[in-house]
## 1
Amino acid sequence: MTPVEFHSEALLELEEAHAWYEELDELVATAFLTEINRSVAKISEHPESWPKTRDNERRFLLNQFPYSVIYQC
C-alpha cells in the first residue's frame, strides 16, 4: 500500500463537508466519511488506476457524494 498524506487545504475541505453533512443528518455524515475512507484505501492499493488530470494529478470520483479525491502518485 502507498502511504497517503492529505494536503492541509484538502483536509480543511473534508472537515467542512463532513460538518455540513452532519448538520443535515448524522448517518449521512458517517456515510460520507466511510466513502472517503474507502476511496483513500482504493487509491492507496492501486494509485495508478485512475486517470490523470494535469501535472501528474489523478482524480477519483466518489459514488454517492458530489466530491472527488485529487491526488498525486
## 2
Amino acid sequence: MTVANLNEAELRQRASGLLASGRLPTDEPSATWAGSGRGERCCVCHVQVRSDEIGFDLSFQSTERELELHMHTRCRIAWEQERGRR
C-alpha cells in the first residue's frame, strides 16, 4: 500500500482518531524539516515515506520528553486540518 491509495477523507479520519487518542500532538512543532523521505513510517498512515516522496520531520519538545514524527505531505495536511478543528 502507498499513501496514494488513501483518499483525503481516510487520511483526515486517521489523523482525527490519532489526535483524539493523544497519539498525535495538537500543538505546533518546535521545529520542522522537509526533504526526500528516508524510509521512516508515517505516523498518520503508517506507510513508509520513500526517497522519491517529500517527507516532513516534525520535532516537539515538552518538559517531559522530546518527540520526532515523520509524515507524508498529504498526511501532514490532514493532521493540520484536523488539528485546526480542535
## 3
Amino acid sequence: MAWPALGLPATFALVGEELTRERRIAGFTLQAVLKRLPVVVAPPLGGLLLERFGMQGGMRIGFAVSLVLAVAMLAALARAFRRGGDEAPRSPGARASLPPALRTLLAADILVRLCEGLPEVFVVIWVLEVIGLSPSRFGILTSILMATAIVSYAPAVALAGRAEKKSFIVLTYAFFTAFPLAVLLSRSFGALAVAFAIGGLREIGEPARKAFIVDASPPASRGRVVGLYYALRGFAVAGAAAVGGLLWSIRPELTFLVATALGLLGTVCAALFLPAARAAAKDC
C-alpha cells in the first residue's frame, strides 16, 4: 500500500512544470476528481459482494476484480508511455531542503494527519459493530463521502484566482477536525450520512494545499522537495493507527476525542503561522 507514494513527487513536479501558478489548483482538482469517481461506485458494490458471498467469498471476488483492473491499467499506461516517447534527462539539481513556509505547513499537516490516522481504521469498526450498520450501508456512507468531496472541489476551482490558498487549507483542516467528532456523536444512519458528508468536505482545500506546496518549492528541486515533505509526513504519522488502537483498548471514544484535539491544534497552527501563498513563493 506504500508503493503509490513513489509517484507523488513526479506528479507534483509535472503539474508545477506544465501549469501556471493560476491554473495549478484546477490541475490538482481535476486529478483528484478522476481519482475519486471510481470510489463513489466501488464501496457499495464491495458491500453487496460481502453480503451476497460472505466475508471470504466476497473479498476474494473483490480482489480478483481489482487485479484484473490493475493489469488493464498498467497495459494502458505502458501504451501511453510508448506514444509519449522518452523524456529528456534531467540534471541532479540542488540538494532538497524545505523552505520555511513548507516547514510550517508540514507541522500543521502532521497534526491534522494524526487526527485522520488515529480513528481511520476504527471508523469502520464503530459503524459496523457499535452502530450496527450493514456492510452495504457502510459502502453507501463511503460513496456519500467521496461524492461530497467531488462536489466540494467546484468552489475551490471557481475561487482559485481570487481567494488565498491559505484560507482553503485552514478550512479543510477544520473539516478534518470535525469529522471524528461527528462520527463519535452519530447514532443512526442519517447522522452518519451527515458525518461522512463532513468527511467529504475535508477535500475542499486539498488542491489548494498541493498547489501551495508546488508554489513554495524551488523549481530546480521541486520533485525532491515534494518527496522530502511527504517522506517526513509519512514517517511522522506512520504509528497513528497503533496509537489509535491503544486508545481504543482503553476506551473507544478516546480515539475520536484525541484525534479531534490534534486536528484542532493543527488547524490553529495553520491559521496563525502559515504565510500567504505568494509570500511563500517569494521565499523559495
## 4
Amino acid sequence: MANIKSAEKRILQDARRQKRNKSARAHLRTAVKKYGQAEGKAKGEALPATYSKIDRARQKGVIHKNAAARYKSRLAKKAAK
C-alpha cells in the first residue's frame, strides 16, 4: 500500500473505476453475444439496441472509439448477411 495520502486515494479511485468499467464491458459483450444468437425478426430489433450499448460504452470511456467502430462494423457485416 502507498505511503502518501494522495496515492492511497488514487488507488481507491482506480479500483472503483476498474470495477465500473469491468461491469460495463461485460454488459457490452453480453449484448453483442445476444445479438449473435438472435433469430429472424428479433435480430432486426436487437441491432439498434446493441449499437446503443456500444455507443454508451464509448461515451463512458470504457472502450476506445476505434474499438466501438470495429464492434459496429462487424455487427453491420453480420446483419447484411
